[in-house]
Structures are given as structure tokens and as C-alpha cells.
Amino acid sequence: MAKEVCCSTQLIDGEGNFNVDGLEKFMKSVKLAECGLSYAVVSIMGPQSSGKSTLLNNLFYTNFREMDAFKGRSQTTQGIWLAEATGIDPCTLVMDLEGTDGRERGEDDTTFEKQSALFALAVSDIVLINMWCHDIGREQAANKPLLKTVFQVMMRLFSPRKTTLLFVIRDKTKTPLEVLEPVLREDIQKIWDSVPKPPMHKETPLSEFFNVQVTALSSYEEKEEQFREQVAQLRQRFFNSIAPGGLAGDRRAVVPASGFPFSTQQIWKIIKENKDLDLPAHKVMVATVRCEEIANEKIAKLKSDEGWQELEETVQSVPVPSFGKKLSSILDKYDMEAAYFDEGVRTAKRQHLESKSLDLVFPAYQAMLGHLRSKALNMFKDELDQGLKNGEAFAMAVRNCTKASLAEFDQRCADATVSQATWDSSKTREKLRRDIDAHASSVRAEKLTEITTNFEKRLSEALAEPVASLLDAASKDTWPSIRKLLNRETEAAISDFSSAISGFEIDEKTASRMIQNLKDYARGVVEKKSREEAGQVLIRMKERFSSVFSQDAESMPRVWTGKEDIRAITKDARSKSMKLLAVMSALRLEEKTDKIESILSSALLDGGDASGAIQERSISATVTPLASSTWDEVDPSDTLITPVQCRSLWRQFKTETEYTVGQAIAAQEANKRSSTFLPPPWAIVALIVLGFNEFMTLLRNPLYLGVLFVLFLLIKALWVQLDIPGIFQHGVVSGILQLSTKFLPTVMGLLKRLADEGSKAGASANSAFSSPARENGSLKQVPLQDFSSESSSQGSSSTSGLTSSSSVRHRQGGQVDMDTA
């Protein structure tokens, strides 16, 4: 498997200078701050040129500089180098220390060696002690003097960290590890026993401070392949090294990864400033570390306390009675127990523990306050609803319910107070007050909206239909009546509305605005209804015209007998329709005068019945006053129908009513014709004078008289069969077209029927001529029966005046023919 690129930096140079910038860059590169406590520090120390860097590079895939054997044995690593182990979880930092006993520093200059060793033991979780196999059992070998000094200083300065000391025996011989390990452990125990100890650690075993382990490796130069296999096996022991049972599973007082740079810098600073390693001034630091451990233990126990866990779980869902007393008794069990440490540190750490404990339980306290706030708010809502149902004034009910709810909240908060804390519930109380105000405002707005809606509905019902009825009447009193209706209903509604909202104690400005809105709404109802009616003005005008034109003063249908003045009636009907148009042309909710009716009258009625050039001049004269989109003395917002629209509507109105007038004229003419049986006297005299010769001819030859009589009967039959008046009542052109299609079939049918009747009358022509009276009777009978049936059909199906008069004429004609025959 390909190895990942290793990141490394020199932490401390050969002169003892700490590389702050390099460590910061290293931290960012490996993202150490994200690891939290999940990281381990491994360091190695041992004699110079003992293969420390080589071992680390093979063990952790680092890139520390190694000694070139072909150039001789000399110092390779100067100071302390730091790298990240590649491919090992958790994140493992590896420190390569400068070798001891180097000739470059000389025999007397061992200060840096001791300082770096002490630094490694203070910072590392695992320390590899690299030693030669043949040095085991030798007094001055295997770093024994260095270990003795380190043990003594570590015990005096630092609380036990349980650092793992992994002794790596290099160039292992044939002697089994089972034989070498007891000897090495015995030497280490002797060093520990010989170190002077303070009273508190007189009987403390080595295992309390260090976890000693031993391993052996073959020679790298002679048995490289076997060496690599053994290193690979050793590498597996560093996976999950900080887990329980791992190499560093018993470590203590771990510094969070984000604080690693500062911690190492301060430790090195303290060690560097005390070259003789006599550091009694760090009593405070020891106390700080130990008290921090105690505080963390207390917090951990508090978190796992069954009483606290039950209380925390319960308070998340429901309020807990006597919450403050229960929580105070739990906190009392976890006070700081650190009587043997520095008093100042102990006091500070006790306060810190108390602060952390309170921080831990504060969410539960907040949850309790949340329950109390919700309970008080629900109490307010219920009591307010009940008060309003009982008819209590809204503002008074809100004040009483608010006072009761806040008093209940204060009482409950006193029961939830924790004696160790000075927590203030004022913010929650303020939030409760805001929630109460918000709910009250919401209910207030809802109630006011409901009241306003009811009054608007009342105004709509009181104004809409009456306004429509008044506009439909369209007289000079229409708009005064509408104004009177509007004022009456609005004043009554405002009076009742003011009484309805008095219990809300609304400020005068808001009340005035609401009353004005109600007035505007009432006006809007009238305006909306007026615009709706104005949109149907053409229909209303035609209805008004039809009512006036087709009914007399007693509201009875007119019968056009020929005595009526159709022109005057038409003018009166149009005048009244024009007045309706004038009424609906503009809103007149203010008592202002306008000239709309006079303008429309002069423009639309004067000269309106003229024809030809006179009518053209009249139209051109009306263009000017109606060629505008606004009325004089009328606000554009009050305009319902513009002058231009009035002209267009009037043209359409006249076009659609001309047919009714034409029908009346036709009916009147038909009635006149049907009521006149004889021509004028002068015509009778003319006929006698001018037709004397023809009359004498007829007397001399009666055959002509029979022929004329037969022709008369045929023409009368065709007149009835074709319904000539009905065909031409819709126009001359359409009548001619219908007559052209019906004429030939009707003549053929009539002749066929005459032929059938003739064949039934007699078998021979002689017998027919011998009985002229019977023959004439049969000739009369056939067409007259048809005429009477047709006349009856026409009379029953016709509803208009013109059709009725035609039917009368048909019947009269038929009767005349029969009498004549």
C-alpha cells in the first residue's frame, strides 16, 4: 500500500528555542484542533546513533532524517522534531529527541539532554526508550542516570499521568525476551526505589506513574527483513492506543488538542528556565492540574447521578414540584474535595466547579421556567375566554387575567429557585408578559375584526337593495333619497359600533379611524351598487322605454287604434329613459348640483326625431358637449358613465327601440286600413262617373260579372293562404323573398283542391251548368271554409297588436266575401 505524505517540523532547535510558528503551521496542516482528546503523543529517547529515527520512520511512516552509516557515526537529530504518524488512528504525534551521550555536546553539557527527556515525559503518552540489548544489566548504560533524574522530577512536579514507557531492545541476540525483560524491569524498579519521594508518595508504586512495557527488535543492518516484520507487528499496537487496554489507555490529565501548542510551549519554558531541574515553584501548576482533574471527576459523577438524570428527564416534559429544593440537594453532594492543594487554586477551582455544575443544570432550570411560563400563559387564555363569555369588558378582563397569571408565575418561580445560584427569572417573566400582550392583542384584533365585519354586513344588507330599488325608479328624488338612506343607516351603525368597542378602551385616534373606515365602507357599498346598476343602464333604459311606450297612464297595454300620437308617446318614453341615464351617470352623495340632465336633454332629445339634413345638423351639434370623458362640476371619481359613453349608449338605445316604434306605427296603419270599408265619397263619385260605361257593359253581359267574381275569390283565397300581412310585417324585401317561394306551391295546391271538389260535384258539365245555384254554392264553400280555418289559426297564434289586427281583417274579409257571395 502506498504511504501517505508525512508532515513534520522542528519543534525545538539545538539551542533550545521553541518554534512557535512552525508548530502553529503544523497544527493547521494536520488539523489537530479538530481531534479534541482523541489523539496521542509518542516520543523516543536513547543514545546517539542508536537508530531512533530509523525506528520511527519504519514504525510510523515518518520522514525523520536518518544517519548515513557510510559517513560514520555522528549526531543526526538536533533538538526535538515533531511529525504526524501516517495511517494510524487515532491521530498520533511522534517526537524524535536528540540522542544522549553525544560527543558534539561533550560529557559535561548534559542539561539539554535532561531537559528534553523531562519534556518528553511531561508531554508524551507513550515514551519509547531505545537501548542496546548488550546494555541490559550495566549500571551506566541504558540511560539509567537519566531515568533516575526524570523519575524524581516527575514525581515532585506533576500529578501522575500514567505515561507508558516502552523499552525497545535493539539488536536482539539469541537470549529470549522472556529472560531479558525481568532483568530490565528489575533495574527500572531499583531506580524507582532509589528516588527520594515526598511523604504523600512514600508508598506509591511505579505503576501509579508509569506503565512499563518491553519489546525487542532484531538488527536492522544484519536482519533487515526480520526487523521490518517485527516493526510491522509493533505498529499494530499503536492503533487505538488511547482506548481502554491500549498502550496509552490509562493516561490522565489529557490536554485538549486545541491547547496542545500552548501547553507544550509553557512546559518547555518552565523546564528551560530551571536548568538544574529543581522546580518547586510549580506547586501552583500541580495544584491547578490536580484540582482540574477533581473538578472534572465531580462533573462526571454529577452527569451520571441517577437523581439528576431522572430530574433532567422529567423536567423536559412536565413541571417538577419542589424543583429548586431537589436540585439544590443534588448539587450539595458534589462540592470540591481538595484540602491538600494551594488554597487560592482550591478556591478558584471550587468556584469553577460550581459554575460548571450550574451551567450543567441551567438548561433544566430554563426548561422548568418554560413550563411555568406556558402554564401561566394558558391560565391567562382560559380566564380571558371565560371572562369574555361572562360579558366582562375586554380591557378589564385583560387586566385582571394578566395580574392573576403573573402572580401565579412569580409564586411558582420562587419554588423553582436553586439555593446555589443567583439566577434571575425576570427575562422569562418579561417574555411571559410579551406573550400575554401578544395573545391579548391577537384576541383584541380578532374581536374587533368580528365586530367590524358584522357591522359591515349590516350596512351591506341595509344599503345594497334599497339603493338598487331607488336607482331603478330614477327620478329627481333618487339621489336625495339615497343620501338620506346612507346618512340614516351610517349614523345608526356608528352609534351601535361605538358602544360595541367602548369596552376595548381604544384610544381616540384609533376609534376615529375605525369609525371613518366604517363610513367609507358604507359609502363604498353605495358606490359599488351604483356602478353595478350603471353597468346595466342600457337594459334599464329599454325597460323604462317599453314601460312608458307600451302602457298607458293606467298601466294598461296600449291598443293602437289610430288615434294615438305615436310621436309624442315616443318622445315621452325617450325623455324618461334619458332621465334614467342622467341619474345613473354620476354619484351624487354630496349635495352638489350638476347639469348632466340638461346636457343630455339638449344633446340627445332636441331635434332627435328630425331626419335628413336637420338630423345631421343635430348630431353635429351634440358632438361638442358629449365629446368628453368627464362631466362639468363632477369629480372624475364620482363619474359612473362618461359623456362619450352616454352618447354611445343613446345611439344603441335608439337603434334597439326603433323596431318597437315601427311595429306600433305599422299596427296603427293596419288598424286604420281594416276599419275603413268604403273609399272616400269623392272616390265613389269618380268611380260612378268614370266607370259608367264599364258598369253598363257588365249589365249587358253578366258573364263578365261571374268571371270577376271568380277572380275575386281566387285572389282572396291566395291572400289568406299566403298570409300576406304576416309576410310583409318584417319588411318589404323579406316579404317579397318569402312570397316568391310560397306563391307557386300555394297556387298549385289551390287549383288541385278546386279540381278535386269539382269532380265530386257532378259527372258531366251539362248537369253542372243546369244547376247554377248549386254550382255557385259549391264554388263558394270550398275557399270560404279554408279562409275561416286559416283566419281562426292566425287569430289564436298572434299576440302582437299588428297580428291581431291582421287576423281581424282576415275574418272581416272572409265574412264580407261570404256576404257578397
UniProtKB/TrEMBL annotation:
Membrane-protein topology: Multi-pass membrane protein
InterPro entries in the cross-refs: G_GB1_RHD3_dom (IPR030386), P-loop_NTPase (IPR027417), RHD3/Sey1 (IPR008803), Sey1/RHD3-like_3HB (IPR046758)
First-listed, main subcellular location of the protein, grouped into a coarse class: endoplasmic reticulum
Cytoplasmic topological segments: 1-678, 724-821
Ranges of biased composition (kind: Low complexity): 788-807
PANTHER family for the chain: PROTEIN SEY1 (PTHR45923:SF2)
Record carries keyword Endoplasmic reticulum: yes
One GO term (biological process): endoplasmic reticulum membrane fusion
Keywords: Coiled coil, Endoplasmic reticulum, GTP-binding, Hydrolase, Membrane, Nucleotide-binding, Transmembrane, Transmembrane helix
Protein name per its UniProtKB record: Protein ROOT HAIR DEFECTIVE 3 homolog
Start and end residues of each GB1/RHD3-type G domain: 36-251
Pfam name, any one: Sey1_3HB
Lumenal side: 700-702
Region annotation (Disordered) ranges: 764-821
Record's function text: Probable GTP-binding protein that may be involved in cell development.
Family affiliation: Belongs to the TRAFAC class dynamin-like GTPase superfamily. GB1/RHD3 GTPase family. RHD3 subfamily.
Subcellular location: Endoplasmic reticulum membrane
